[in-house]
Amino acid sequence: xxxxxxxxxxxxxxxxxxxxxxxxxxxxxxxxxxxxxxxxxxxxxxxxxxxxxxxxxxxxxxxxxxxxxxxxxxxxxxxxxxxxxxxxxxxxxxxxxxxxxxxxxxxxxxxxxxxxxxxxxxxxxxxxxxxxxxxxxxxxxxxxxxxxxxxxxxxxxxxxxxxxxxxxxxxxxxxxxxxxxxxxxxxxxxxxxxxxxxxxxxxxxxxxxxxxxxxxxxxxxxxxxxxxxxxxxxxxxxxxxxxxxxxxxxxxxxxxxxxxxxxxxxxxxxxxxxxxxxxxxxxxxxxxxxxxxxxxxxxxxxxxxxxxxxxxxxxxxxxxxxxxxxxxxxxxxxxxxxxxxx
Length: 342
Hints:
This protein is mainly alpha-helical. It is about 70% helix and about 0% strand. The chain has one domain (about 10-320).
C-alpha cells in the first residue's frame, strides 16, 4: 500500500468516524429530549426500530451462516452487559447534562485496563498506570466529591461506562470465534425481549412526536453503526478511535442550544483530563500492546454492535490467518466468514 493510499484511507476513516460520532450525538440528544416516558419503554422502542431493518437485511441476505453461538456463555454475558449498559445510559441522558454523561462514559478505558489485569492477565506498565491515575483524577473533578451530592444519575453513567468496559473485555475473550451477525443479533434480541417485558408493566401511551423521535433514534443507530464499521475498515483504529471525543463538542452545542444547559467549567476541566487519559490509552493500546488491543476490537458505543476490524485484518482472515487474543486457540480449521455491513 503506497503512502498516498494510506493517507487517503486515514482521511477517509477520520471523516467517517467524525460523521458516525456526530450521528450518535444526535441520537443521544433525541434520547435526552424524550421526557415523561419510562426508561424501559424508551429503550424498547429505540432498539425495536433499529432491530427491524437489521432483520430485514438478514432476510434478504443469502449468505450462509449459522446463528448458533460457539461460546454461548460469553455471548450471554455480552447480552447482559449490553442491556444493562443501554438502560444505564438512557437513564443518565434523561437526568444529567450531555457533557457530564460523556465525561463519565469516557472513563471506560480506565475500567477496561483495570479489568484486563485479572481477567486477561495483562501487565500494566508505567504509562498505563499514569493514564489510569490521570483518568481517575478527571472523574473526581467531574463528580466533585464533597461539593455536590453523588446521585443515582451519576451512578447510572458510571454503570454505563462499566458495562462498556465489561463488554469490551468479553468481546476480546471471544476474539474471532463468533460470527459478526451472532455478535449483533443476540444483544439486540435480548434488548427487545427484556425491555419489552418490562414495558408491559410500565407502559404509557406515546405521543406522536415521541414515537417519531424513537423511530429516528433507531434509524440513527443503524446509520451510526454502519459508518463506524466503514470507518474502521477504511483505516487503522488509531485514526478513528480518537474521533469519539468529538462528541464532547456536540454535547456542549446541543446542551446550550436545545436543553439550555450552562457550560460547567469544572466538568470541562475534568472532561479534558479524562480525554487526555483516553488518548494516552489509545496510543498505548495501538502502538505498544503485545496482544490484540481493546480499542481495535470495540468502539465505545453501547449500540450492541460487534467488534470492528480493519481491512487488513479481513484480508488476513480470508487468507486463513486469524488474529486471536493471547491464550486463545482456534477450535476448528474453517475460516470465519465476514460481512460487508454489520
